[in-house]
Specification:
Four Helix Bundle (Hemerythrin (Met), subunit A), Tetracycline Repressor, domain 2, 2 domains, single chain, mainly alpha
Length: 286
Amino acid sequence: MTLRDYVRLIKPRIIPLLVLVALASAIIADRSIPPATTLAGLLAAGTLASAGALATNSYLEIDVDSMMKRTKGRPLPTEQIPKTHALVFAISLLALGVLVALLTLNIYATFFIALGAVVYIEIYTIWLKPRTTWNIVLGGFAGSCAVLAGWYAITLSDPATAWVLAALVFVWTPSHFWSLAVITESDYAAAGIPMLPSVVGKERAAQFIVMNTLLLIPISLLFYFYLSGGGAIVYLLGAVAFDAGLLATNIKLLRAPTKSNAFLAFKFSSPYLAVIFVLACVAALL
């Protein structure tokens, strides 16, 4: 049992993206750099609450992880961390994250930070994931809550724009994770998890990925109407370029639903959200 094991328990690769979209949303809402205390509160509370929710997910999915090649080496299936220690660690992080939000942010931002954890743990992990192929579709709202926390930490005005940004995260999530699930479909099938590719097959899943991306693209372009001047042009050109790249990788997967093409689609979609939100920040500041 080492510090590295506890770091692996919180799935640290996911957290930076959640924190980034929260901070970016705050900058976009403010159209400038918000106070350092607000950014620090979002960073700390978002990191702690996300880590707590992800560690709770690791605790709840010990049996599932032990049946999948991709995850059976994680700290809990290999008993590198005692289960009770993991649960206490997860709950402590989550509680601390909500407390930090209460102390440094407003009640609205705190609500969405807490709601994101509830959606991820209760709705996605416990209820949806073992029961339906809609799991990652509806579970994607957990990521949307990070956006809403950042926005409502700054202002209650212009909720339509806040929810467009939230919808961007919500709709991006299925294309991204379905591409990964095409690669690991046998793992999910072995674990009895109805992830879309393991239920309908990789060919049909590739069709859903393309359709989902065709829904994502107009949502990403809607943000253009929030902007003006040179910022609007910067965002539009950047968004169109990345939308085209994402769609191209998805179409390549549709034409030949191989694991290598699924990996290409997954790797291209991985930075997509970060790039779009950074572009949106730059455009809003301009």
